[in-house]
Amino acid sequence: MITVEQRAEFRKHFRDNISSRLITDKIVKGVVLGCVVLAIVPLASILFEVTKNGAPVLSIDFLTQIPGAVGSSDVGGIGPAIQGTLLLIGMSSLIGIPVGVLSGIFLSEYGNNRLGQTIRFFNDVLAEFPTIVIGLFAFMVIVVTFGYFSIMAGTFALSIIMLPIITRTTEESLKLVPVTYREAGYALGINRMTIIFRILLSSAKSGLITGVMLSVARIGGETAPLIFTILGSSDFFAGFAQPMDALPLRIWRLSFLPYDSSIAQGWGAALVLILIVLSLNIGIRYLFLRRRGGGRFRIVAGG
Amino acid sequence: MESVKLKGGSASLDKVFKIGVTIAAMYVLVVVVLIAVQLGSGSYQIWAKEGISFLTGSDWNAVHGRESFGAAPYIAGTFVTAGLAMLIGLPVSIGIAMFLSELAPKFLRTALSFVVELLAAVPSVIYGLWGLFILRDYLRNWIEAPISSTLGNNVWFLSGTPFGLDVFTASIVLAIMIIPTIASISREIMIAVPNSQREAAYMLGATKWEVFKMAVIPYSKSGLVGASILGLGRAVGETMAVTMLIGNATGPSAFPSSLFSPGQTMSSIIANEFAEASQGTLHMAALIGIGLILFVIALSINVVAQLLVSKVVKAHEGAIIA
Amino acid sequence: MEALTKTPNAGRSFQEPRYKLVAENIVATYNGVEAVKNVSMKFRERAVTALIGPSGCGKTTFLRCLNRMHELSKGAKVTGRVLLDGQDLYSSREDAIIHRRKIGMVFQKPNPFPTMSIYDNVAAGLKLNGVKDRKVLDQIVQGCLEMVYLWDEVKHDLKKPGMSLSGGQQQRLCIARALAIQPEVLLMDEPASALDPIATQKIEEMITELKKEYAIIIVTHNMQQAVRISDFTGFMYLGSLVEFGDTKQIFENPKNETTAKYVQGQFG
User: Fold this and answer.
1) Which of A9, A33, B245, C206 is such that its CA lies 20 to 30 A from the CA of A139?
2) Could you read off the pLDDT of A133-179 as tens digits, one per residue?
C-alpha cells in the first residue's frame, strides 16, 4: 500500500511541466489549424480563378457552337464537348448502373461467403485504380478490335470506372434497410427478387441515387481514359463509331494552345465542367444529410 | 394447390435472379483479370525486344529502325513525385483529420468535411489548368527562384533554372489532390477510436495533443497507414494534372535529378505520347508496357491499402453491432 | 502568533470533518437537457462514498463532472464549482489538466491502451508528468500493481500487452494506471459491472483496502455492493440528489420515501 507520505515522495519526481505541455498543445493546435487553411486555400483559389476567367467567356454561342478553326478570330464554342460529356455520362450509366446495382445486390444478399469477399475486395481495388490503365484497357479491347476510336470505347472505359462506386453504394444502402422489412416480405411469401427491388425502389432509393450521382460526378471529370478512346473531335455527334469530344478532353487540348482566346475558352469549359460536377456533389450532400449512416460512403475523387 | 404452384414458380425465379446477380458481380473480377491479360499481350513485343532492360534502361527513341525504350526515368519520376506529394500531403492530411475528429466544433466539422469533399470532387484536368496558369507562377517566383538562387549551386536536387513546369510543381499539385483521400479516410478511422480510450488519457491529465498521441494514434495506426497507402496509390496513378505540369522530358534527361527540372511519370508519358504512337509499333508496345508496370504497382499498393483499411473499418462496424 | 492564525481553520475542522472534495451547485446538461440538476455533495477523505440510483438518474454524469470529464462529451455543459482541498477545478481551462492528475478515474469497462504493455499502461501517466528515472518508474509501477493485487500475477509478463489480461485483470490494471499518478481522490464508475463475481470480489476487497489512503467515490448499480463497501451513500433520482447520509442510515432508515422504495428494490 502506498501511503500518503510515499505519495508525497513519489510526487517529488513529477516535474512541473504543465505550462510547457500546454504551450506544446497550443502550438500543435495552431499547426493543425494551419493544415486546414492549407486545404481551403487551393479550393478557394480554384473556384475563384475558374469563375473569374471562365465567366466572361460564357454565352449561348459558347455553349452551343462548334469550335472555330485554331487561332482564327472566330473562336467558336464547346457545344460538341458538352454534348459528348452528356452522351458519355448517359451511355456509361446505361451499362454501369444496372451491372453495378445487380452486383451490389449480390454482395448484400448473397455475398456473405468467399466469393462475395473476393468480389468486394476487387471492387474496392478497382475503385481506386489509375483510370489511365482502364483507358488503355478499353483501347485494346474496343478501339484495336474494331479499328476506330469511338464513343463506344469511351463508354466502355467510363462504365468500368463508375461500376465499383455504384456497387458499393448499392450494397451499403441495402444493408441499412432494417431486416424486418425483408422478413415481412418473406412472411407474405413474396419472392426474393420482388422484395429486393421493392426495397431498392423505396427504402434504399436515396442511397442508390447518391451512388449514381457520385459516380456521374466522377466520370464527368474523367480525362485520361478519353485520350485512348474517344480521341476528341470538333464536330457534334455523328454516330457511335465516330470519335467524339468531351469537356475535360477539350480543356486539356485547349490548355496547350498558344492563343489567349483558346486559354480563355479552356477556363470557360472548366467553369461549365466544375458547375456540373460540383452541383452533383452538392446535390449528393443534400441527400446525404437527410439520411442516417451516410458517412460511410467514401469520397470518390475525380481522376 | 395454386399456392404451392406459385411458390415453386417464385423459387425458380429466385434461382435465376441469384444467377443473374452473381454474373453481374463476377464482371469486376473478369475486368481485373482481362486488364492484366490485355496489357500483357499488348506489351509482349517490347518485353521480347528489351527484356529486363525495359525496366532499367533510360533510352527513349521511337525513330523507325533505331527503336530503343527504357522506362526507368518514368518509374523514378512516378515515385519521386508521389513520394514528394506524400511528404507534403500526408502531414497536412493527418492534421486536417485530427482537426475534424478531435478539435472542430460541430458546425465547423460539417462545413470542413464538405470542403474536403469538394476538393476531392474537382476534376484532375481542372487542377492541371489551375496549376498551369495560376499556381505555377507563384511557385516559380516565390519559392523555386529564391531557393535555387540561394541553394541551387550547393544542393544537387535544387539545381537548375526553375521554369515552373517541373517535378516540384507537379508534386505540389499532387499533394493537394491526395489530401482529401487521406484526410477523409483518416478522419473516419480516428472517429472509430472508442471514446473510452480518449477518456483514459484525459484521466491521466493529458492535453488534447497528448490524448491524440497516446490514445488515438496508436489505436488507429494500421488504418492510418492504409489511408496513406491509398493516397500513395492515387498519387501514383494520377495522370492529367501531372501531365500538364511536369514538363514532359523524355529519355535520360527525364530522370528526376533536380526538383526544378522537367520530368516525366509513367502515366504522363503514356498520355503524352499516345497520340504519336501507331498501333502495332514498338513505341505503342512500350507505352502499353509502361501501363502494365503501372498496373502492377497500383494493384500492389491498393491491395495492401484495402487490406489495412478494411480491417479497421470492419473492427469498427463489429464494435457498433456489439 | 502562528498558533493564533491557524486557530480558525483548526477550529472549524474540529467541528466538522475535513472534506477532500466539495461539489457545489452542479448543473450538467447534454444538448440542453439537464442530466444533473443543481447537486451539491461533500466527500470525505479516507472514506468510500457510493452514488446509487436508477439508470439515467445522473449519477454517472455527476461523477464525470467531478474531474471535468463530462464537458468532453459532445454537446455537454457544466456549471457550478468543484473544490479539491478548497481549490476550484472549474476556475480556468488549464485547471482541468492540473487537477485531473489529483483525481484518478476508473471506468465502467476496462480500457487499457491496447498497444501498450502492462508496464507502459501503468507508467503512461507518469511519463506525461515527466518522470524519467527508471528506478522511480519501476518502484511506482510495482507499488501500484501490488495495490491492485496484480503484481504477483503479472510480474513476469510486464512486457506483454495489456489486452492479453482477463477482463478482471484489465480492470485492475486500469485502477493501477489511475493510482500511478498519485491521485488523492479516486472516482469509480461501476468498476465491477462488466466483471464476473470473483473479479468483483477482488475489486471490492481492494477498494476497502484503498480506502485507508484515498477518498473514493463510486457509482454503483448494485445495492449490496454499496452496503458492503461504502461509508456514505447518496441517492440520486431524476437528476437530483434525494438523500445523502451514512450508508447504514440510508439503507436501514431512509428519511425519504423515494429512497426507501429504491433501496427496498421497488423500482430501479
Assistant:
1) B245
2) 999 999 999 999 999 999 999 999 999 999 999 999 999 888 888 77
Report the C-alpha gap between B235 and B298 in whole angstroms.
10
Minimum CA–CA partner of B177 in chain A: A301
Residues B7, B139 share a domain: no
Q: Does domain A79-296 have CATH number 1.10.3720.10?
A: yes
Which residues 141-160 of chain B have a CB within 8 Å of chain A? none
Q: How far is A122 from chain B (nearest CA, A)?
A: 7
Tens of pLDDT, residues A243-283? 999 999 999 999 988 888 889 999 999 999 999 988 888 87
d(CA C147, CA A1): 5
Give contacts of A10 with chain C, Cβ < 8 Å.
136, 139-140, 182
Q: Is A240 on the interface with C (CB under 8 A)?
A: no
Beta strands per DSSP E along chain A: none
Name which of C107, C124, C128 is nearest B196 (Cβ-Cβ).
C107
- The class (CATH top level) of C18-100+220-268 is alpha beta
| C144 and C122 Cβ atoms separated by less than 8 Å | yes
> Please, what sign has the CA dihedral across residues A80, A232, B123, B241?
negative
The domain total for chain B is 2
Three-state SS annotation for B116-156: HHHHHHCCHHHHHHHHHHHHHHHHHHHHHHHHHHHHCCCCH
Nearest CB among A3, A6, A15 relative to C130 is that of A15
The complex scores an ipTM of 0.89
State how far residue C146 is from chain A, nearest Cα, in angstroms. Answer: 7
In terms of domains, do B206 and B234 share one?
yes
pLDDT score at C3: 43
Strand order in the sheet with C232-237: C103-106, C185-189, C215-219, C47-52, C232-237, C240-246
Angstroms from B121 CA to nearest CA on chain C: 30
CB B193 within 8 A of CB A300: no
Residues of A in contact with C213 (CB under 8 A): 1-4, 7
Q: In this complex, which of A109, A131, A191 lies closest to B10 when CB atoms are compared?
A: A191
Phi, psi of B154 (to 5 degrees): -100, -30
Domain holding B274, by residue range, is 49-321
Q: Is A31 on the interface with C (CB under 8 A)?
A: no
- Residues B127 and B245 occupy one common structural domain: yes
The enclosing H or E element of A27 equals helix A18-54
Sorted by where each begins, the domain ranges of chain C are 18-100+220-268
What cell was used for A99? 451491372
| Grid cell digits, residue A178 | 432494417
For residues B182 and B88, give the distance between their C-alpha atoms in angstroms, rounded to a whole number. 12
Q: Which residue has the cell 499488348?
A: B42
Chains that touch B (3 or more CB pairs under 8 A): A, C
Residue B213: give its domain's CATH number. 1.10.3720.10
B1 pLDDT tier (thresholds 50, 70, 90): very low
Grid cell in block for residue B96: 486536417
Tell me, yes or no, whether B34 and B88 share the same domain: no
**Main-chain dihedrals φ then ψ at residue C145, nearest 5 degrees:** -65, -30
DSSP 8-class letter at B95: H
- The span from the CA of C88 to the CA of C80, in Å, is 10
B194 has a chain C CB within 8 A of its CB: yes
B interface test, pick of C84, C113, C141, C181 with most B CB neighbours within 10 Å: C113
